[in-house]
Design goal:
disordered N terminus, alpha/beta, 2 domains, globular, Rossmann fold, single chain, 33% helix, 14 helices, 17% strand
Length: 429
């Protein structure tokens, strides 16, 4: 287990609530900078992070999420890798009547990242779908002559058509506890264990997920949701309200994210009914639930999905930001990216008691934690009075100064480099 000593608990590889330190590739392993993997073997001469990344011919990402759906953890991390190596982002297939099996490639990130999606005929059995994808992927890798690849998994289900490959490094980035989600495939837990056995290193999307996985692999590291501060800090500047929000009166309570089984529908319904003078702005796609079950009243405004670039403009017009998460199996391990994003926008935040929000944000009094409509309403009232609290804002900014997607990504790369070197040494001995 490599020890990144400040935001990784010594001997366990866990990211704690303390801040991340900057990791510079030019000084990797040679300085006493916090988070240097002090337990790692000495790297080969000149083996900086850039040198390691240059040795990776491509990253093959297997994802259950589509690249253009919602900009979140995979996009933040892989867009940074794309500056150094080729990225092939494999999405789940599309099905068409009478389609000839083929792979379609679409470019993103200025041509540095390729979305790869299989087009398959309808009517195939699950086994036939996996066999067709394996056949297409075999041909794809042969055509592109990809050696020294990293396979980066977000879904264990992809093992069904990739287990035949032996990449230079296998990473399992455990973003969510997918088995707890609605419509989870029956074989997911079995395949997850197979992927954990196959993986060289596991990253988890939060502290709670780390605690659930830490005994299942010797190289498990927590990397909770991080932040692009400069992007969301735009919301602190006066700007024109988006057209579909401009007509909504104040005070406004806002939420952005996917509206699915994790969203606390009844909490929104009760709070909105109790305070018709408050306006509730809900931004994001509705998936896996019937939109008809969502509460409908004059003070609730569903504005649909917005692009990542648009979000700061909407945030700028809110008075309070909300984390409206229900307590169920699908939210037990979540680490909402929107928590630091809301704070970077300078907005007071009210959240239900999601464990990875309580730790550290609630414990540090950066976010109001409340469950049930009466408590949530009281917390919103406190938050409405907080916008001019300079002490809270200063404390919030001090905390956010220690985290960023750049630092998260750099520390991940460092760990990948360490594990790769150990793997090479074992294979050579």
């Amino acid at each position: 287990m490599f020890d990144l000593d400040t935001d990784f608990i010594p001997g366990r590889g866990s990211s704690a609530s303390s801040s991340e330190s900057e990791v510079t590739s030019s000084s990797a392993y040679s300085s006493i900078t916090t988070n240097t993997p002090k337990a790692s073997p000495a790297p080969a001469s000149g083996q900086t992070l850039e040198t390691y990344l240059a040795s990776v011919s491509a990253i093959i990402c297997l994802s259950h999420l589509r690249w253009d759906f919602v900009y979140q953890r995979p996009q933040h991390l892989l867009s940074r890798f794309a500056k150094h190596t080729r990225i092939f982002f494999f999405e789940e297939p599309y099905f068409h009547e009478g389609a000839q099996p083929r792979l379609e490639l679409q470019e993103r990130e200025n041509g540095r990242l390729s979305i790869v999606v299989a087009h398959l005929p309808t009517g195939l059995t699950p086994a036939e779908i996996d066999a067709k994808q394996a056949e297409l992927l075999n041909a794809f890798l042969a055509d592109h002559d990809l050696q020294k690849t990293v396979f980066w998994y977000y879904t264990p289900m992809a093992l069904e058509f990739t287990r035949q490959f032996e990449p230079a490094l296998t990473v399992f980035d455990v973003m969510d506890e997918l088995s707890a989600f609605k419509f989870a495939p029956p074989r997911l837990l079995e395949l997850e264990q197979e992927l954990i056995n196959k993986a060289d290193i596991l990253f988890t999307g939060g502290q709670s997920l780390y605690e659930a996985k830490k005994h299942r692999h010797k190289e498990v590291y927590a990397f909770p949701s991080s932040i692009d501060k400069a992007h969301f800090a735009k919301a602190r500047q006066p700007q024109e309200d988006p057209a579909d929000q401009a007509h909504i009166p104040h005070p406004r309570m806002g939420f952005f994210g996917v509206v699915d089984e994790r969203f606390d529908i009844e909490l929104l319904r009760e709070v909105a009914a109790a305070h018709p003078e408050w306006q509730f702005v809900i931004i994001g796609p509705v998936v896996k639930i019937d939109p008809a079950v969502l509460p409908s009243s004059a003070n609730i405004h569903y504005l649909g999905g917005k692009s990542y670039q648009e979000l700061p403009a909407y945030l700028a017009g809110w008075d309070v930001a909300m984390l409206l998460f229900a307590h169920n199996d699908s939210t037990k391990y979540i680490s909402p990216t929107k928590t630091p994003e809301y704070l970077a926008a300078g907005k007071p935040v009210v959240s239900t008691s999601i464990r990875d929000v309580v730790r550290p944000y609630g414990e540090l009094n950066l976010v109001h934690i409340a469950d049930g409509a009466p408590e949530f309403e009281a917390a919103i009232e406190k938050a409405l009075r907080q916008k001019d609290d300079k002490g809270w804002m200063r404390k919030t900014d001090d905390y956010l100064a220690g985290i960023s997607w750049d630092k998260t990504w750099q520390n991940m790369v460092r760990l990948m480099q360490c594990v790769s070197q150990e793997k090479k040494k074992r294979s050579a001995s």
